[in-house]
Amino acid sequence: MKLGRLNHVGVAVPSMHDAIAYYREVMGASLITAPFDMPEQGVKVAFVNTPGEAGTAGTQIELIEPLGETSPIAGFIAKNPAGGQHHLCYEVADIEAARAWFTAQGKRILGPTRIGAHGTPIFFLHPKDMLGQLTEIMETPRGDH
Ligand SMILES: C[C@@H](C(=O)O)C(=O)SCCNC(=O)CCNC(=O)[C@H](O)C(C)(C)COP(=O)(O)OP(=O)(O)OC[C@H]1O[C@@H](n2cnc3c(N)ncnc32)[C@H](O)[C@@H]1OP(=O)(O)O
Ligand SMILES: [Co+2]
């Protein structure tokens, strides 16, 4: 497997509304997508874009707010009521090859491969196996690179 670009840093927030205001007013972000619900992932999502090198997409901040009774980030927000850095998401060219690569190393994969917020397949790796970092692997969207 070859590691691709850092696609996004997931940031769990208790209030999407307040987090968007923070990125606009405190951080000076001008490109923030409208929030949308991903009920099957248990989160509301909005992306803050940072600029990349000429002609490339910059790394995004993925704001995630708990959605529904069984949100996977409910426990994280309970422990970190102000919110906090939640996961790192790296791109790969081939999601199935990446899954096999981590499985062969005994890394715990959290649930099935599913379609993520960019419309490409993703999976998550347990933070206790990954230097304490919840790690998301996503297939690079077609047309990028
Ligand atoms: C939309 C999509 C996309 O980008 O396309 C997304 O990103 S959706 C992003 C949201 N979806 C996901 O995160 C899906 C995968 N996540 C999960 O399955 C879960 O969140 C887990 C990672 C298993 C954690 O679940 P939960 O907090 O309920 O379990 P737990 O309290 O037993 O936690 C087990 C241990 O892991 C630690 N822990 C929990 N969340 C962590 C995190 N984000 N980073 C680092 N450590 C973390 C806890 O403190 C605890 O450590 P101690 O035992 O030392 O206290
Ligand atoms: Co993510």
From TrEMBL:
InterPro entries: Glyas_Bleomycin-R_OHBP_Dase, MeMalonyl-CoA_epimerase, MMCE/EMCE_epimerase, VOC_core. The keyword Metal-binding applies. The keyword Metal-binding applies. GO terms for molecular function: methylmalonyl-CoA epimerase activity. SUPFAM superfamilies: Glyoxalase/Bleomycin resistance protein/Dihydroxybiphenyl dioxygenase. Its EC number is 5.1.99.1. Residues 5-140 form the VOC domain. Pfam families: Glyoxalase_4 (PF13669). Keywords: Isomerase, Metal-binding. CDD domains: MMCE (cd07249). Gene3D superfamilies: 2,3-Dihydroxybiphenyl 1,2-Dioxygenase, domain 1. Belongs to the methylmalonyl-CoA epimerase family. This is Methylmalonyl-CoA/ethylmalonyl-CoA epimerase.
